[in-house]
Design brief:
Elements: H1 2-15, E1 23-26, E2 32-35, E3 43-49, H2 52-69, E4 75-81, H3 88-101, H4 117-123, E5 133-137, E6 143-148, H5 153-169
Parallel strand pairs: 3-4
Antiparallel strand pairs: 1-2, 3-5, 5-6
Length: about 170
């Protein structure tokens, strides 16, 4: 009975979920990233930052997510530094700094965004400019879980629970 209740809560959350803003951008390794991914069966974990300080905190989340999900083909995770408010002449310098601070094997997962900042702020219920914002979404981009703040075991356990629930309801092909 309890499992039916959880599934009902999950279904309600899913039906009322917001949709991630569309992304068509280049990752640090220069590959094109399109989100959501049409036809994909991969669950999305997005780590979104809006400031230099949040970038440092996003790094801690990225390392933890990579440790847990890098080898899981059912999961796609991305770090999305939102750089729209960075003046154009400084963007390449900021991206160069990010590239130097990210291990080469993770460059494909770091996708600087230069547009849609208001939509991302709305999606994550933006309140603290220096916080990292975490989003778990279905393959078609519907958000099912969100959090923000510095890394904590409690928040990470919630993220893992959301992923586990999705994996049960969205089996891969």
């Amino acid at each position: 009975m309890f499992n039916h209740f959880l599934f009902a809560c999950f279904a309600i959350t899913l039906s009322a979920a917001q949709f991630i803003p569309p992304v068509r951008a280049k990752a640090l390794d220069n590959t094109e990233v399109i989100l959501p991914r049409p036809g994909s069966q991969q669950i999305l974990i997005l780590i979104v930052g809006f400031s230099r300080k949040s970038g440092d905190l996003c790094g801690a989340w990225s390392r933890k997510v990579a440790t847990s999900y890098k080898a899981d083909s059912r999961i796609a995770y991305f770090n999305l530094p939102v750089l729209q408010s960075v003046p154009s002449p400084f963007r390449s310098m900021v991206v160069s700094g990010i590239r130097k601070g990210v291990p080469a094997e993770e460059h494909q997962r770091f996708v600087p965004l230069y547009s849609n900042e208001p939509a991302w702020k709305t999606l994550v219920n933006f309140s603290q400019p220096d916080d990292p914002y975490l989003v778990v979404a279905t393959p078609d981009g519907h958000t099912v879980w969100q959090a923000h703040g510095s890394y904590s075991e409690a928040i990470y356990a919630d993220l893992q629970s959301a992923i586990s629930t999705l994996l049960k309801n969205f089996p891969s092909r």
